[in-house]
Amino acid sequence: MDDIQIVGACNCFALRQATRFLTQGYERHLKPTGVTPAQFSIMAVLSRRQDVLMSELADALVMDRTTLLRALKPLQRDGLVEAGVSEQDTRAHTLNLTKQGVRTFDRAKRAWQCAQKEFERQFGESRAKALRAELFSLTGKP
User: Fold this and answer.
1) 3-139: CATH class
2) How does 46-80 read in b/e, with b if 16+ C-beta sit within 10 Å?
């Protein structure tokens, strides 16, 4: 198999290329809110409940802790996410959206919805739903 055939048959290459393409659309819509797609995902998980443990957030995002910490720093610096100490285990850190974080997430959610609709118009709503199901089946996470 030559190099061109390898690239054309590589699942990882195809998925990463598609991810970059798709991410660019979400970045365009989210940019006015000051939130990146990765930050939006973090905020979406934190918006569902309070006192999320760092380990729970990393697991939900299928992200290693070091990468998660790097993604969290700007959110904490900008006052959107606050860290605390777990009541159950003082060695564990909990994460919460601040009031400003909730407001920012609400604005970002509207921008995300526009990006979502744009993709579904281009790709097809049923195809997009099937694609999500297939991708989530890889990780076993919704």
Assistant:
1) mainly alpha
2) bbeeeebebeebbebbebeeeebeebbeebeeeeb
